[in-house]
């Protein structure tokens, strides 16, 4: 028996050693990958200590051996764009990588507006998506991972996917439209490495070494390095959240009776009435979190009865469960995604039908976002759902305690999602982030600049192109000139253009007042692509930017503004008068100004101000009327002269 035990133990050791002897590659280096053209490429992986490695690619063989830690790397030149190629890597085992393309590789990073997939814009771009089948555009979606203690060398999952009908819905919309424009112009394969996470501030993407210039952020990193501390918070918050929802369910009258409130036979004649879409606090249900039920009866014509239908319920704060004629049709657990449900065939009937929505508000205002689609459709036939609804409070609750999102903490995402990329040769980076940094815009320029320099240092490819999106317009417009943290953040982004090889896509005309995730990602991608054409591909004939403030001159009661990047000349979009210029005198109180284009400069004045000292343009969260463009159709970036 003792001999048998020793024999089994010996076999296990042999099996373990054999498994460690096998060559292993990072997830990025896999079938379907896109490699950067005309560069010195790194191919790396792991094997047994001292193991000899041979790599065959493009009719050449390269050799190396694993170091004392089992790591190995081969450097080889890549040809001009083309493919497909194969790569064979041989050690004590052999790996073959198939369907390799040579082209241009772009890292796509930031927060939710870079995350937002084509699936979210499928209604807006239905025809385009239906005709999308381009296997020469590919995406590698990096899984979300954060670590405060060490930088990672690989990802837990991920694969290269081509922009085909089977995969396109998972592509970042911004990144896809960017790649589409570049492909159409240069006809080379495009590889997109999508490393982005919703809600993240810029400091989450900076390495610990680079963050030393920001002691307050570094102190927070050191705090969350303590896994016991992190786990304690997680457990505590998990218990609080679980108990909150259990209590909510237990106390919700709509779910406790014999007859549930979503059932068609339930008598709701005593319920109060409310106009939707709206926040219920604005309609009389003040300071209420918890569960509120909404109910509406609609008449369905015979021609829609029995058919499968699309059901749009706009956006709901915070979560909903939705029923049609007592049948559950969908739920979403947080406020940002659009409610786009499907009513199965046979549910709608001719005549009276009942729609019920159970809404949970965790904190703040609860309800339905205005200016979103609320309707049922079967083909070309629709039923509008806006207007009067019945409602009743299921149960009130104290606001739910906010959850700690550790992926937002400094350094974590750099270690988990960027560090594993830095050996992979790239053309450049596109970046869409800033919404989560508007609470402290004063430090953004320094943080963002630090991140760009940090990434360039880590990749060791010099000043590769770094292209970013300036924040879109968002929230309700204001009637008078006012201060704005969103405008300050845009200013910080503008200042970052002082770094070499950077470009900015202005988006103040592409936002939506009621949605932090505007759907017009096509023009965001196009404007990033224009910046790439100019900066990455050195196309001197491309006008890649709208007007950018250059200087001011005071002449009597007028301020004369000069701009860079005027292209073929300044214009007022849709003609009419220039809007969203404000002017101030010695009292520094800004008032709306008159403005006109004269010799490709802008004159700004207000007859009540004899001696102006400063001008602001589009200085607001949502400067929705700002209309200074160049003739190429690109908007001027917001600016203020009182900080220059």
TrEMBL record:
Keywords (A to Z) from UniProt: Hydrolase
Residues annotated as domain Sialate O-acetylesterase: 104-209, 414-529
Cited SUPFAM superfamilies: Galactose-binding domain-like, SGNH hydrolase
InterPro entries per the UniProt record, alphabetical: Galactose-bd-like_sf, Glyco_hydro_2_N, SASA, SGNH_hydro_sf, SIAE
One Pfam family from the record: Glyco_hydro_2_N
Domain Glycosyl hydrolases family 2 sugar binding: 238-379
The family this protein is said to belong to: Belongs to the glycosyl hydrolase 2 family.
PANTHER family: SIALATE O-ACETYLESTERASE
Designated name of the protein: Sialate O-acetylesterase
